[in-house]
Specification:
Bound molecules: S-adenosylmethionine
Helix content: 25-40%
CATH architecture of the largest domain: 3-Layer(aba) Sandwich
Shape: elongated
Number of helices: 9
CATH topology of the largest domain: Rossmann fold
CATH class of the largest domain: Alpha Beta
Largest sheet: 7 strands, mixed
CATH superfamily of the largest domain: Vaccinia Virus protein VP39
């Protein structure tokens, strides 16, 4: 296996009509990679959907495997994960992109594919991922397959927003084939369609202590930072002032910046920066931003 994988043909595993299913080759090649001449003690598949992993287990003659999903009565949030596994493959819903309640014909409050705010989905996914980590045997692995989502023009990187439990051993990019978006024509030339998924391999390599990685977004204001140049502050000010301003107008804004607090010659600094930077040009009494 290498860090980019592509299976244009999903293989004869599970229900090929099950929406959002994955290629059985992903699971098969992972198991072959980690167990070249043996078998997992117990292979557990969480979010087993249309039975892809079950057919992989059959092909590899793994008798000790479990394939768990709401569609066979097992709830990842409410139920315990059976113990004794050294290899867990999970393929959660990509938020609410596909409704599995429709697929099952029954609603569950705990379905991770229900319509819900993104933050709630991430919280629920974190709960499941932590449960998976804790039930693994020492030395065991959790392989998680999930994609990114774009909704109403906003990009959501699920792997970035969720918590990571344990040690990341590999990050594999899986090329996405047969997407609904494949035949879609996009009017917007700037739009980059998503054609990949992420396969993360986490290893439990400590018994007691475990790493939890989280990401956070800090909303900052350039007026409140010092690690910014005067040129960049002036550029922002000119854009804010619709690209034309006198030196006084620029000064009145930037004198309130954190950078100005550390400088006794703010007006001089602004004048010097305007004069020394070819991107700023003087037209009569006003300065404009001139980007060639
Ligand atoms: C992306 S699909 C998995 C597809 C599967 N890998 C396959 O190849 O068919 C996600 C699955 O998560 C299941 N699911 C959603 N919430 C769940 C929960 N709380 N507990 C168990 N399964 C859940 C859905 O029923 C769906 O089958």
């Amino acid at each position: 296996m290498q860090s980019v994988i592509n299976y244009p043909n999903r293989g004869n595993f599970g229900d090929s009509k099950y929406r959002g299913n994955c290629s059985g080759y992903v699971i098969r090649d992972l198991i072959k990679q980690y167990y070249p001449s043996s078998k997992p003690k117990k292979f557990v598949e969480i979010f087993s959907g249309g039975g892809t992993g079950k057919d992989v287990a059959k092909e590899l003659e793994i008798n000790n495997s479990l394939h768990l999903d709401l569609n066979n009565g097992w709830d990842a949030l409410a139920d315990e994960i059976p113990t004794g596994s050294d290899f867990i493959f999970s393929h959660p819903p990509y938020w609410d992109i596909i409704s599995y309640a429709n697929q099952r014909n029954s609603y569950s409050n705990n379905d991770l594919s229900n319509k819900m705010p993104y933050e709630e989905f991430i919280k629920k996914l974190d709960i499941v991922n932590e449960k998976i980590y804790h039930c693994l045997l020492y030395g065991g692995r959790h392989a998680l397959l999930i994609g990114d989502v774009r909704k109403q023009g906003k990009y959501y990187s699920i792997i970035k927003d969720m918590m990571w439990f344990g040690e990341l051993e590999s990050h594999i990019i899986k090329i996405q084939n047969n997407c609904v978006s494949d035949n879609k024509a996009y009017n917007n030339n700037e739009f980059i369609p998503i054609k990949h998924e992420h396969l993360l391999i986490f290893r439990k390599n400590k018994i007691w202590v475990f790493n939890v990685k989280t990401t956070s977004t800090i909303k900052n204001n350039i007026m409140d930072v010092t690690n910014i140049t005067w040129r960049d502050l002036i550029q922002a000010t000119l854009q804010y002032l619709k690209n034309s301003a006198t030196i006084d107008e620029i000064y009145n804004i930037l004198v309130k910046s954190k950078k100005a607090k550390n400088n006794n010659y703010v007006r001089e600094k602004i004048r010097q920066t305007l004069n020394n930077n070819p991107n700023f040009q003087k037209v009569k009494d006003e300065w404009i931003l001139c980007v060639e």
